[in-house]
Amino acid sequence: MTENFKGADLVFTGQVVEIIEHKMIDSIPTDDELKPFKIRKYNRIEFKFKILKLYKGDIDSEFVSIYTTGGIIDCGNYFPINSKQFVYSYITDVRLNDYGSDRKVKPYYSTSTCSQTKELKRTKRREIKEIEQLSGIK
User: How far is residue 124's CA from residue 95's CA, in Å, rounded to a whole number?
Assistant: First the structure.
């Protein structure tokens, strides 16, 4: 918990108010001279949250967008509309689904299944108290 909090750029509880699915198409270089590129399709999902309580981060709005792939296999989260979540997020400039790539994009907030992000109702009271202590917020 402490490590996830320290490593996160943004920690908050929030309610999902909008889900926008972006269909992405990308080309990947191959070793095949006849087909030097392979086309790949993937999802980039934007979850717009209304922030209920901010524990860490610098947000000047009551809303924030968190981007993820929405898939479990690639560690992306999926959040149902209107659900309340306890979110550990980080700023990245690496393209979603572009592991090991040096292609950078405009920085955005993301999260993963490894970050301890979970439904608010599944968050233990002990965890919330610890995060409140770490953040100095009650």
Answer: 33
- 57 close to 10: Cβ distance less than 8 angstroms: yes
Give the tokens for residue 73. Answer: 């296999």
Distance, first Cα to last Cα, the chain: 17
Distance CA 122, CA 109 (A): 22
Q: Counting every residue, how long is the chain?
A: 138
Residue 123 has pLDDT above 90, yes or no: no
Confidence (pTM): 0.80
Residue that is written with structure tokens 């970050």 in the block: 115
Query: Phi/psi of residue 117, each to 5°?
Result: -65, 135
CA torsion angle 59 62 67 68 (round to 10): 110
Separation CA 74–CA 119 (nearest Å): 19
Contact 130, 96 (CB under 8 A): no
pLDDT at 22: 79
Please name the residue that has the structure tokens 């979540």.
85
pLDDT over 90, % of the chain: 32
Are the C-beta atoms of 85 and 14 separated by less than 8 Å? yes
